[in-house]
Structures are given as structure tokens and as C-alpha cells.
Amino acid sequence: MLARINAIALNTFREAIRHRILYLLLIFAVVMISFAQILSLLTVGSEEKVIKDFGLASIDLFGVLTAVFIGIGLVSREIERRTVYTLLTKPLHRFEFVLGKFAGLAITLLVNTGVMTLWFFLVLLIKGMLDGALVIAILLLFFQFLLITALAVLFSCLSTPILASVLTLALYVVGHLLWSLDLLAARLTSASGRALCRALYFVLPNLGNFDIKGEVVHGVAIGGSRVGWASLYLVLYGSAVLWTACAIFERKELQ
Amino acid sequence: MKPVAAAPGGRGRMALCAVVALLLAVLVQTRIEGNRRSSGVHPILYLPSGKYLRVMALGFDGLLADVLYLWSIQYYSNYDIRDRYNYLEQIYDQVITELDPHYLDPYLVGALIMTSEARQPEMALRLLDKGVARNPDQWIVAFEAGFLCYNDLHDYKRAAGYFEKALRVPGVHPLVRRLYAEMYNRAGDKRTSLKEWSEIYETSTDDYVRNVAWNHVHDLKVDVDVAELSDALARFRAREGRPPRVLQEIVAAGVLGSLPRDPEERDYLYDESSGEVRYRGSLVLGR
Description:
Shape of chain A: globular
Oligomer: heterodimer
Number of helices of chain A: 11
Radius of gyration of chain B: 33 Å
Distance between the termini of chain A: 25 Å
Helix content of chain B: 55-70%
Radius of gyration of chain A: 20 Å
Largest interface: A-B, 27 and 19 residues
Strand content of chain A: under 5%
Strand content of chain B: under 5%
Number of domains of chain A: 1
Largest sheet of chain B: 2 strands, antiparallel
Distance between the termini of chain B: 102 Å
Structural class of chain A: mainly alpha
Order of helices and strands of chain B: HHHHHHHHHHHHEE
Structural class of chain B: mainly alpha
Strand order of the largest sheet of chain B: 1-2
Number of strands of chain A: 0
């Protein structure tokens, strides 16, 4: 089973690195990270904060865009091009196909994030601002990309690429605004309204778990437990999303 | 249907049209800019509160705070905008520091602009108070507030209060302790100032700091002793109806427990005719 998933993953990776959008996003990220140096000249103090904020935000933004724009077409494009029929005639389970697609994009994102991180660290090294804690922030950002990829794969199994991109981006926005649901629940007088808010708060993907950019830039110590809990959350929530995607793809009528 | 052949020189004409269209767009933009400036609507009025911006930032609140801070620096460097100080509190207090409450520079630079340029030190202190509340582990914000009270408001008691807050933070710069001690002197509480400077002298391992502290201790001890003796002499005069012939009389009369000695371990000079006490040396700092 693993060999088959690996084969799909490697093919997906090869296909993804041929995507022009990947290079476009990567170039934008590199330019934005470099641009922070120029912007930092305009500030009074806090040059280091500006460069680190811009670097982390670039990695975050362009990683998410890569996950969304490549992830949404992973399954639907195979169906559209009818290449999925050829694949599924081979001894390959449908869930292996979905998991392989996810793994392929995960490898792409790993390489993508690696390149952005190397460039970011090079800029920091030149400026003498290298900070090991940034690795933790980038690791958690990568976890966020993986969860978004899983969601993109799920929506890619469900609908067209445009709708899938809208749904994934909507969940990205919601995932960063869940704390407001918690605040809303505290203000509501109706018990059912509060229960609904609380339910949504826990059921929707909480991307705030992976966002420690602010803390790292301000030098706040990040406990190992924070990373540990975020990793566990990714494994569990990501598994739930991927198994749902597999279940949907298993039942999908391919004509 | 046959493909239409490209018109000769068509690509050049299209490029020319594109350049002309771009130039026209630039002209229109300059007109729009002119209209915007003459409309009297201040661009900052479009800036929402940091609380709302934080919701919209989707985790990029630190970055947004950076961008707005950079913009504010440029904005306040433009002396052509006459009413720019009207929005100081909104920009620094309600927007940037709401977006990133741990971003120290907007507190410090915002307070500097409020004090030095807008001449609104109380507004600066409100901003710095917020900075102290949101960043209790950073001594620099309380220090800045104290320095503002000392340097601009000459409110030394208030300054001492801020320096005391800064002193509670581990890793505080030693200078804060010296300023704290000095604020009591400036406020007229020489006894507390002497106590603080003595502690600095006794605890510091830096020769320079010990030397500075000793100079203050020396002069303050003289001031405190002379004030104490003058007070005792006044009480003696009130009780006996005459000045004492020698200083020892005020101890014998029970007005003072013992006679203080000067920093060089000598007695203070007493002039019976004027009833005044003097230090026989000269003050180091000469204040």
C-alpha cells in the first residue's frame, strides 16, 4: 500500500513542480522577503522586527496560496482530464490515490517552504539577525499548510476547482477568526446560541493553533507543549479531513 | 473560416496605444489626487480601529502593525500636513498598538512625537501607560514615561513612580536606579534620596557608579544634616527664647539625640550670632 501511495505522491510532486503558479508564488515570496530590507530602512528602530514579520508573513501567505491553488486541482483535474480512469484500472485503491495526492503536495510544500526559509535565513544572516526560534514558527506554518492542503484535497474531491478554492479560502479565513466565536459565545444570552458557537468553535479547523509569528518575533519563549499540542491537533484533524475525502472519493461516481 | 493576417505594423500601433493609454491614466490619477487633497477629507479618517483591523488581519496583525508604523513615520515626517497632530492618539493608541500590543517602538516613538512635536505630554503618558500595562516585562516603557515626567513636566514625584515601576522589571538598566534616587532629591525629599543613593553606593560594583553615588551621598548628607540641625536650632530657640551658645546645648536640652558629623567626620560649624549651621568643606556637586 505504501509503495502505491509513494508512487502517486512522487508523480504528484513531479506534476506540481511543473506548475508555473508554484514558481510565480515562490518568486513573489523571495521578492517580498528581500523587500523587507528596503522597508526596514524607512523605520525608526525595530528594523529586526520588520524584517522578521515580513519574512514570516511571506512564507505564511505564499505557502497558503500554494496549498490552495495547487491542492484544489489535485483530484478534480485528474477527473477532468480522465487520467484518473487509467490510474484506477491499475491495482490501486481510491483512498490510496487520495492519500498519494495529499502526500505529493505535502512534499511540494516542504520543498517550497524550505526554499523560502533558506532565502529568509540568508537575509537574516547577512543582517546578523538569525534567530533559531524562527524555525519553530516556520514549522508550525508548515503544519498549517498541511491542514489547508488536506482541506483543499477534500473540496477537490467534492466539487469544481473554483468552488473548492472558494471553500478552502473561506475555511482559511474562518480558521483564523475562531477566537471571535468564543467571544461571541460569551456575550450571547441564549443557551442554544452559546452552544452553537461553542460547537462551531471546536468543530471548525482552528488555524490559530499554528500561528506563533507574533510571539517568536517578540522573543516570547515557546514551550515544547505548544508545538506538541499543535502537532497532535494537525494529526487528528488532518486525518479526519483526509478520511472524509477518501470516503467521498470512494463513493464518487466516475463516468 | 480563414485566419486573418496580422496588419502590417499592427503590433507597433498597439504598443503606441498602450503607452498613450498609460500616460492618460497617469494624468487622470494626478487629477484624482488633486481632488482628494482639495476635498478636505483626511485620509486617516478611513483608518479603522485596531480592534477591527485585527479581526481583518487573519493572523497578519504583526505585519499590518509594521506597515502602519512605517507609514506613520513617513506621515509625521511630512511637515506640510498642518493638522497631522489631531490624529496622533488614533494612529498610535487606537490602531498600531491595538494591532500589536507588544510592539514597543510605536509606544516610544509615538510618545516622542506627542511630547516633542505636538506638545501633548499627557497624551504621551496615556500611550506609555498602555505600553506599561501591556508589557509589564519591559522596563524601557516605564523608563520613558518617567523620563518624560522628569525632563518635560518636571514632575519629579510622578517620574519617581514610573522609575520605580521600571525598577521592578528584571534586567533593568542601572541608570534607572540612579534617576530614581535623584528624583527624590529634585522633589525635595532629600532623606529618601540619600537613602537610595547610599544603597547604590553600597551595592554597586562599578567604580564609576560608586564614585557618582558617593558624590550624591556626600552632598545629600550635608543637606540633610544641615536641615536637621537648623530644625533643631529653631525648636531650641522656640523653647528657650534664645539661640544655643554651642551646638552641644541642643543635645543636652533633649531637642536632638546626637549631633551629626559631616561626611569627613568633622563637626558642623555653628555661628551663635546668626544662629546658622554651616558645612566647613565644599559640596562636591555644588548644587
